[in-house]
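Hey team,

Filing this mostly as a record. A colleague (T.K.) asked me to run one chain through the structure pipeline before their review meeting, and I want the input and output archived in the tracker in case anyone asks later how it was produced. No errors, nothing strange. Just documentation.

Input sequence:
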Amino acid sequence: MPPRYAFILNPYQDVRLTKCPQCDQPTRLRKFALLIHVDQFGLMIHGKTCRFCPPCDLLIVHQDELEAQLTEHLSQIAPNVIGNEYLVTGTVERKTWRRGLREELPLDEMQEHAADFETVLQLEYEPGGWYPAG
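Output structure:
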């Protein structure tokens, strides 16, 4: 599938981005099937409710929420890989994700219904307050 969505992985626990950092419009909650590669485990599809800005086609995932959900999920199927590096590589069609909940999907079929991100953006945040000049 062609690349879709701009993507931000928000590493800040105290920033929830209820407004889009690009257009300042309110973000909406939307469920996505994320394709995630976990070191020493491989690819997995994870359903996650994320912040989404439709005008900018921007998908925002909060890192602390994602890691908590991955830890919970992996503790049941592969506890030895908890804490390993991971990479959110794209999204998968919801229909394919739902089918994958019922049966194991072959890797080539999973990749056939996956879309990479168009762009990956970095979130930079400076907390408000008083700062000395310079």
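Quick notes for T.K.: The chain has one domain: 4-121. The radius of gyration is 16 Å.
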